[in-house]
Design a protein that fits this description.
This protein has 241 residues and is an alpha+beta fold. Helix content is 39%, strand content 25%. A 5-stranded antiparallel β-sheet has the order 8-9-12-11-10, with helices on both faces. β2 (22-26) and β3 (33-38) form a beta hairpin. α4 (70-79) packs across α5. The protein starts with a strand and ends with a helix.
Length: 241
C-alpha cells in the first residue's frame, strides 16, 4: 500500500522493490482507501507531487464485500472492465485486495508466476532525464539515450555502474557517478540485496564539445588557406627563376 503522507521518492522506491501493477492509496490509514495507483500511468506521467500523481495516475477504488462469491465477482469485474478490487469486511474496514488474475486462478487453476503488469525499465521523466532500473540491458539504454557504453564485461546498466565503482555499494547507498565519457550523470537511488534497483540518469549536453569541434574545423580551414598561399608563392618564385 501507498500512503498520501509519503513522498514521491518513497513511492518510487516501494514500487520498484515490490513491482506490482496496482497499489491502493491510503489516506489516514489502511481502511481509508482514496484511490488505486496504475503503475503504467504513473511512470508515463511527469508527476511533481503526490497530489499530481493521484490526479494523473490513480483510479477510483472498486470496493467489494469479502463474502462475495468468486464467480460473481469475476463476472462483475469483467463487465465493468475492472482489474483491481479492494475487499472490505462487514464493518467497512479493508480486508485485502484481489485482481481479476487472482480470480482466474481460483476458477481455472494456477496461471503461473508471470507478473500482472511489467514495470518499464527505462522511463523518460523530463528533459534529458531518465529513470533506469539496474536490470535494464545496456543495449536498450543505448537505444533510448543515444549513448554508447565502452564495455564488454557486463550486460545490464547496474553491472556497468558496478564496473565504474569497482565495488558493490552497501544497501540503501545513494551515489552520484559521472561516466568516463562524461556523457551521463548517474545517481543511484536504490541499492537492494547488493544490486542496483533504480537510478536517475541525466544526459549531459555537449555544447562545449560542439563549439570545440567548430573551432577545430575553423583552424583546419585556416591552415588549408595558408598552405595554398604558400604553395602559390613558391610557384611564383620558381617562375621568376
Amino acid at each position: 500500500m501507498l500512503y498520501k503522507e509519503d513522498s514521491l521518492e518513497e513511492w518510487r522506491e516501494k514500487i520498484i522493490q515490490s513491482r506490482h501493477g496496482f497499489y491502493p492509496i491510503c489516506g489516514e490509514d489502511a481502511d481509508d482507501i482514496v484511490g488505486v495507483l496504475n503503475i503504467k500511468k504513473f511512470f508515463r506521467a511527469e508527476c511533481e507531487s503526490i497530489e499530481d500523481a493521484i490526479a494523473k495516475a490513480a483510479e477510483k477504488p472498486y470496493f467489494v464485500p469479502e463474502n462475495m462469491k468468486a464467480d460473481v465477482l469475476f463476472t462483475n469485474m469483467k463487465e465493468s472492465r475492472t482489474y483491481f478490487a479492494v475487499v472490505v469486511d462487514e464493518y467497512g474496514g479493508t480486508s485485502g485486495v484481489i485482481t481479476i488474475h487472482d480470480l482466474l486462478e481460483l476458477l481455472v487453476g494456477d496461471m503461473g508466476d508471470k507478473e500482472d503488469v511489467k514495470v518499464e525499465e527505462i522511463v523518460n521523466v523530463g528533459e534529458n532525464e531518465w529513470n533506469i532500473l539496474g536490470s535494464a540491458s545496456l543495449e536498450k539504454v543505448t537505444e533510448a539515450l543515444g549513448v554508447e557504453f565502452d564495455t564488454e564485461e557486463c550486460d545490464t546498466f547496474g553491472g556497468y555502474i558496478f564496473g565504474l565503482l569497482g565495488e558493490v555499494p552497501d544497501d540503501g547507498t545513494g551515489l552520484e557517478i559521472v561516466t568516463e565519457t562524461d556523457d551521463l550523470v548517474i545517481k543511484t537511488e536504490s541499492v537492494v540485496d547488493h544490486h542496483i534497483e533504480s537510478t536517475l540518469v541525466t544526459v549531459k549536453e555537449r555544447v562545449a564539445d560542439e563549439d570545440d569541434d567548430e573551432d577545430e574545423d575553423d583552424d583546419d580551414e585556416d591552415k588549408k588557406k595558408k598552405k595554398k598561399l604558400k604553395d602559390k608563392d613558391d610557384d611564383e618564385s620558381e617562375s621568376e627563376d
